[in-house]
What does this fold into?
Amino acid sequence: MSFDRIREKLNILADAAKYDVSCASSGSNRKNTNKGIGNATGMGICHTYTQDGRCVSLLKILLTNHCIFDCAYCVTRKSNDIKRAAFKVQEVVDLTINFYRRNYIEGLFLSSGIFKNADYTMERLVAVAKKLRLEENFNGYIHLKSIPGASDELMKEAGLYADRLSVNIEIPTKAGLKELAPDKNHEDFIKPMTKVKNEIMQYNSEKKIIKSTPKYAPAGQSTQMIIGASGENDMQIMYTSNYLYNRFDLKRVYYSGYIPVSYDKRLPVIGTEVPVLRENRLYQTDWLLRFYGFDIRELLNPEHPNLDLDIDPKLTWALRNLNQFPINVNTADKMLLARVPGLGMVSVNKIINARRFRKLNWEHLKTIGVKLNRAKYFITCNSKHFEHKDYAASQLKQIIVNSSNSKHKTAFTGQLALFT
Amino acid sequence: MQATTLVYDGSFDGFLSSIFEIYEQRITNPIIIKKSEFQNQLFGEQLNIISNSNHAKRVWDGIKKLLKPNGSKLLYYAFLSEIYGLENTLFKVIKYAFETQKNVISDFGNSHVLSLSKTAKKVSREKHRMEAFVRFQQTKDGIYFANILPDFNVLPLINSHFTKRYADQKWIIYDLKRKYGLFYNLVKTEVITLDLNNNILNEDIFTSEEHHYETLWKDYFKSTNIEERVNNALHVKHVPKRYWKYLSEKHP
It folds into this structure.
C-alpha cells in the first residue's frame, strides 16, 4: 500500500471521527483462546491521552466521510466543503492489526458517513469486523456504529463480531432533530437500538442453557447526545437519557458539548466556547442516576429544570433537602452515605470497611483518605465536634463555594479582580 | 531492646523466609533488610537469611489464609515497590494479622495497613501504566521489542497480561533499570537478561515499516485531538511527563 496515501486518508478520517467522544474499551470479556492476537477484558486501557485530556484507547476512524445527509451540526454534512476520503476494508484491517501489535490501542472504533444508503454502509462496517475476527484471529475490542435505518439482518450480524454497538441520538428531542437534521427521522435511530437490545436479551437467555452460544455485543450499546446545539434544557436532556437507559438497557449515554463547525444560523456561531462545565454537570448527574441510587426527578424537575453550574448536582440536591442531614457515618447504610456531598463511592467503601474495626472520628476519616471539606457539614461521627450550625441553605452554599478551589471558580466571581 | 537485623537476598521468597525465622527463633525486635542495602552495623545482632522455598511457602500459606487472595496480592504488590525499609511495615501487618487472627487488610485505622495499602495502590498504578505505555517496535528478526524503566519492579505483574494478549507474536519487554526482561517465544514467557549496550537502540535493528507505523500513530494522535477543548493540566495529570520517554507520539 502507498504509505503517503494511507497517511492522508488517516488524517482526514481520524479528524472527522474525533467528535464521537466514546472511547471506552471496557466491559467486554473476549479471551484470546485461539492463539490469535489480542483480548478484551473487563477493564479498559487508555494507551495515551490527547491534549484535551481524553483517553485514547481505540483507533477511532470513519470508513468514509462521504455522506448523503446534511445534518447541520455535523462536520461531514453533504453541504460542507471539505476534503473527502474513503478507506478500503483491507486498509482498516491492516492499520488496526499493526497498531494493536505495537500496543498502541485496545482495538477499533469504526464509524462512517452514510454513502448510498444505510444498509450499503452498514454492510461495509460489518465486513471490516468480520475480516478482523475470522481472518486475522483478532480478539481485541471492536466498537461499530449502528447506522440509523440499517436492516435487522445486518444488525444481527454486526453484534456477532463487535463488542459494542452504538447509535448516536445526537439531538435529545424530536423537535430539535427535525430542525437540525431534516433527512433523519427518530424511528431510524430506534430501530437498530431495539434490534440490538432484543438480540442481547435473547443471547443472555440462551447462554444460560447452551454455553457455546456465540457472543453478541458483550460490551452492550451506547449513544451520544450533543449538548448546547439545539437549545434543550438539562431536564430534557437527562429525561431522554433516563428513558434510554431504562428502555434500551444502554451501558452508557455520552454527552458531547457542541463544538461549532458551521456558520448555519440555526446553531451557535463558530468561536462560541464549548460548554465543558455544563457537560461535566450532566455526567455527574448521569453518575448519580446509575451508581448513587438517585431518581432523576429528585435532581431535575419542572421547578428546577437546569443544573447549577457553580456547584455539583449532589450538593444542589442536599441543600434543597437539609432536613435529611446530618448523617452518622458510623451507622448509616451505604446508599445513604452515598448521598452525602463530597463523598464518592470510593470514600463510601473506605468508610464501610474501616468502621467494621472501630467507631470512626474525624481523625480516622482523614487518615483513611476521606475528603471532608464538603462532607463535614453533612455528617456526624464519633466526636463531639461537628460542623453543622443550622446554616440556611444559601449560607452553607456560600461557605462551601468560598472554601473550594474549583478550577472553574473564576467563571463565577461576578466581577474581575482589579488588582491581583 | 537490642535489634536483630535479618539480611535477605531481595527475593520475595527470601523475605518470607525472614518472617519464618523471626517466628522460629522468636526474635523480638527484628529489622529486615535487603543484602544490597545492608551496611555493617556496630551494634546489634546480624542474621543472614538463606531463601528457603519450603519456609516461604509455609509463611505464604498462613498469610493467604488470613488475608485471603486479595489481601495477600496487595502485600505482594507492596513488596515489589522495593521501597527502602518497607519490609518492616509488611512484617508489622503480618504480625498484626497473626496476632488478631483476622483479615486486617482493610483496617485502615492501623497505620501499617494503611501504608501497605497505599504502596500497593502505587505499584498497581505503575503496573497499569506499563500495560498502557509499553510501545513495541518490530525488529528485523520479527521480534516486537520494548524497553521500560518503571518506578517499581512490575515485570512479574505484567507478564500474564502480555502473554495472554500477544500470543501470536514474539516479544521482549526489557527493564533497563533492573537489567532483566521477559521474552515470549510463541510457546511461553521466560525471564531473560541481555547484554545490552547502547547501540541496542540503534534504529538499524528495526524494520523499515516500523518508522511508517510510528509516523501514522503520531499523525493519528494529532488528528484525534480537539483544539477547542485543549486542557493541558488534565493531559499531564493522565500522562505524567516522566512517562513521555516511552511514547512515540510525544516525541518531536
Notes: Residues 414-420 of chain A have pLDDT under 50 and may be disordered. Chain A touches chain B through 55 residues (CB under 8 Å). Chain A has two domains: 3-299, 313-409.
